[in-house]
Amino acid sequence: MSRDRPMPTAEIYRGVRVFALQTQERINEVVKKEIDAVFAMSDAVALADYAGDASHSPEARLFAGARVEALWEMAAEGRAIRPPVDLARLRATTAGLDSLHWVSPWRHGSLFDLCRAIERKVPLTDAEIGR
Q1: DSSP per residue over the chain, as a string?
Q2: Among residues 18, 43, 50, 77, which one has the fewest Cβ atoms lying within 10 Å of its Cβ?
């Protein structure tokens, strides 16, 4: 049996889950603005790069990754040239971002994000993440 659970949701913004366990100020000033930025993007390579950049919010990175996967699927269904994106790498760079088991208590991201993830003002407690 897996102990993994998805991150709790604070709200839905533009169809994207916004995670709890962060301040409303961060949600308004960082997360929503980054979701807006991803919403405006259409280039699969740029979206994949965004998804792999740990300095962005987990929610926006997951959204960017989902958009790349959708662009890839649309190309495949239309028998068009697929975007030049390594889907395995894309999935690896977003792994753990929606996981309470893999969330970093110290940074906004997963434990797989070794650098560039933004530090939390207040680290998460074991009780908050169920460890």
Answers
A1: -----BPPEEEEETTEEEESSS-HHHIIIIIHHHHHHHHH---HHHHHHHHT-TTS-HHHHHHHHHHHHHHHHHHHHTTPPPPS--HHHHHHHTTTTTBTTTB-SSBSSBTT--SSPPBPSSPPPHHHHT-
A2: 77
Return the pLDDT at 115. 80
Residue 131: its pLDDT value, please? 76
What average pLDDT does the structure give for the chain? 94
Amino acid at residue number 26: R
pTM higher than the cut 0.90 = yes
Amino acid identity for residue 5 in this structure: R
Question: Measured between alpha carbons, how far is 64 from 113 in angstroms, rounded to an integer?
Answer: 16
CA neighbor of 52 nearest in space, from 84, 16, 91, 82:
91
Work out whether the CA dihedral 93, 98, 100, 103 comes out positive or negative: positive
d(CA 128, CA 130): 6
